[in-house]
C-alpha cells in the first residue's frame, strides 16, 4: 500500500516502497561512471558552459518528493504524476548546474507533451544548485557510489513493474545512459544530449534498449570523435544507436545558456519527443 506523508512545510512528499517490491535499501550500492567529473578539472571544458540566466519556474503540476537510497540516506526528485495510473515513467537528468528551475520546466514540458506518463526529474546533487561555473565544477564531483545510490533509489521508488525511459543533458546525458544500464530490463528508452558516453563495451551490452544521441559538431568537450567512438562501441555491443549531430556547440539546447540555439533545440526536441512516444508506447 502506498503511503503519502506530507511534512508541515508542504514541500516534500515521502512515499514508502514496501508495497512495490524489495526495498532499495536491501541492495548493494551501485558504482556508476562519472567521466564528467574528470572533464570538470579541465579549465577549457568548464569555460564551455555559459552561466545560467536567472529564471523562476512555477509548476502547475509538479511537487518535490523524497525517496530512500540504499546507502541509508534519502534523495529528492521533482515528480509529475500522470492523471491516470500508469507504469510508464520518464526519468529526467539535470545538467551540471543541478535540479534548477530550467530542468523542472523541461520536465513539465515533456510531461504535458507525452501525456499519460509519470515524469521524475532526479536530483543528483542532494538539493544543491550551482549558479556559477566554479560551483558546478565542484558539485559534479559527486562520489560515484552516491550517484548510483540515488539512481537505485529512484528505480525502487517507481517500482518493479515500471517501464522507464530516460533523458538528460550534459552531465545528465551521461547519467541518462548510466540510469538506463542500471535499470536493466525495466529500461525501454534512453536519450543523451551531449553527455559523456559509457566506454565499457561490456556494460553497454547490458542495455535493454537502443539509444538516441544528440550532439553538437562544434562541441569541444564532447567532440565528434568521442561520438564516433560511442557509435563504434555500441555496434560492438550489438546495440542500436541513432545520432543527430547539429552544427552547434556544447549545451546548445539549454535555454539558460546565453548561446542557446532555438532552431536546433526545437528540432532536437521533436526528435526526442517522437522517440519517447514510440518507446513508451503513448
From TrEMBL:
<keyword id="KW-0732">Signal</keyword>
<dbReference type="Pfam" id="PF01738">
    <property type="entry name" value="DLH"/>
</dbReference>
<feature type="domain" description="Dienelactone hydrolase">
    <location>
        <begin position="82"/>
        <end position="279"/>
    </location>
</feature>
<dbReference type="InterPro" id="IPR002925">
    <property type="entry name" value="Dienelactn_hydro"/>
</dbReference>
<protein>
    <submittedName>
        <fullName>Dienelactone hydrolase family protein</fullName>
        <ecNumber>3.1.-.-</ecNumber>
    </submittedName>
</protein>
<dbReference type="InterPro" id="IPR029058">
    <property type="entry name" value="AB_hydrolase_fold"/>
</dbReference>
<dbReference type="InterPro" id="IPR051049">
    <property type="entry name" value="Dienelactone_hydrolase-like"/>
</dbReference>
<keyword id="KW-0378">Hydrolase</keyword>
<dbReference type="GO" id="GO:0016787">
    <property type="term" value="F:hydrolase activity"/>
</dbReference>
<feature type="signal peptide">
    <location>
        <begin position="1"/>
        <end position="19"/>
    </location>
</feature>
